[in-house]
Amino acid sequence: KGVQGFVARHDGYAARFGLLHEREVKLAENGNVLTGRDRFLRPGGAAIRNNGRDFVTVRFHIHPDIGLLHDEQGRLTLAASQGDTWVFTCAEVAPEIEESIYFAGLGGPRRSRQIVLAFKASEIAEVHWHLTRAAVAGYPENN
User: Fold this and answer.
1) Sheet harboring 55-62: ordered strands across?
2) How far apart are CA 38 and CA 72, in angstroms?
3) Dihedral angle at the C-alpha atoms of 73, 75, 78, 83, nearest 10 degrees?
C-alpha cells in the first residue's frame, strides 16, 4: 500500500548467455526512495553455472548535467546543480563509476558517467539497490 512499482523481464541475453534479466522497481509513496532489484535466472529455473559466461553488469547511465561522486562515507551521490541530491547504495556489490556517452541531446553526443554493478550471476543471483533523496539519507536539506 502506498508504493508504486513494476516488474519487467527480458530474454535478450538468453540466446548468447542463457540468462534472463528481471528488474523490479518500487517508488515509496512520498517519492523519496526508489528501490530496485536486478535478478538473473536461467530459463526453466535451472541454476546458473560458473562457466565464464556468468559475469553480468548492471548499468545506470547518468545525465551529463548530474554530478556523480563518492561521499565521505564511500556512498555514491548524485546531485543536480540547482536541485536535489540523491544517494545510490547497493547491499551486495560495491557500485563503481565509469565513463559513458549521452546521445539524446540536440547538441550532439556529450560525455557522461554511469553507475556500474558488476558481479558473477552464479555467485550473486540478484542485487538490491536504493536511490534515496539525500535529506532522507541523513544529509541536510538542500536550499
Assistant:
1) 55-62, 110-120, 96-102
2) 27
3) -40
C-alpha cell, 44: 526453466
Q: Cell numbers at residue 78, please?
A: 548524485
pLDDT tens digits for 79-135? 988 788 999 999 999 999 999 999 988 888 999 999 999 999 999 989 999 999 986
CB atoms within 10 A of CB 127: 20
- How many Cα atoms occupy the beta-carbon half-sphere of 20 within 13 Å? 13
Give, for 109, the enclosing helix (H) or strand (E). none
Residue-range domains of the chain with CATH? 4-133 (2.70.98.70)
Which amino acid, one-letter code, is at 47? A
Phi and psi, residue 21, nearest 5°: -115, 130
Nearest CA to 88 out of 79, 77, 100 is that of 77
